[in-house]
Amino acid sequence: MDYKLFYALGSAAMGVRVLLEEIGASYELIQTTIAMDEPRPPEQLALNPNGWVPVLIWGDNAMYECAAITVFLCDRHPAADLAPAIEDAERGLYLQTLVYFSNSVQNAFQLNYYPDRFADTPADEPSAQRRGIRRLRETWNVIDDQIGDNEWVLGERFSAADIYLFMLTTWLNTSRGHPGTDEFPNVKRVADAVMSRPSVQLVYEQWIKEQQNDES
Description:
By secondary structure, the protein is α+β, with helices and mostly antiparallel strands. It folds into 2 domains: 2-80, Glutaredoxin (3-Layer(aba) Sandwich); 91-215, Glutathione S-transferase Yfyf (Class Pi), Chain A, domain 2 (Up-down Bundle), CATH 1.20.1050.10. Helices cover 52% and strands 9% of the residues. A 4-stranded mixed beta sheet has the order 2-1-3-4, with helices on one face. Helix 1 links the parallel strand 1 and strand 2.
């Protein structure tokens, strides 16, 4: 099954690409940008007027929003076993976690990275950025507590929620005042385990090298 994915490094489209690798689907990347001062391809804006990625295309259909795409792909490819089935007891936690990632954790990142979306004037933007940092710490603590002693986000089974978690951890930047994953040992344990997967090593190769260089 062929897919096309509007894609930019550092964006949530990287998480969707990992899913496509895990599923084993064939796909084409359509390069775009997340830079605020660079134009988006008209084809991308026609599908998502917000100008954000990821945007997934299959046949004559398209959709955006990373959490929605995650649910869609996992349900469309159940053989990959990346999500609990609808009748599974863990389905509720799976959906709850994806929506929390999208609505709460990602919103905290937006407060810090894009304060102009939340402030009336440029003078108010530093306040929004500081609140974003506090909110990041609050939301990651919630996820860390949820994981607890479990092997993975949903318990003892690997799922797309773990891929989503890893993707979000790559956006943490301590130079901006963000907390590091060391503050959330359960999150770090899961993220480190996800990073060893071949799909993640492929998609995040450049990011992983940069992290290793920073540590050396």
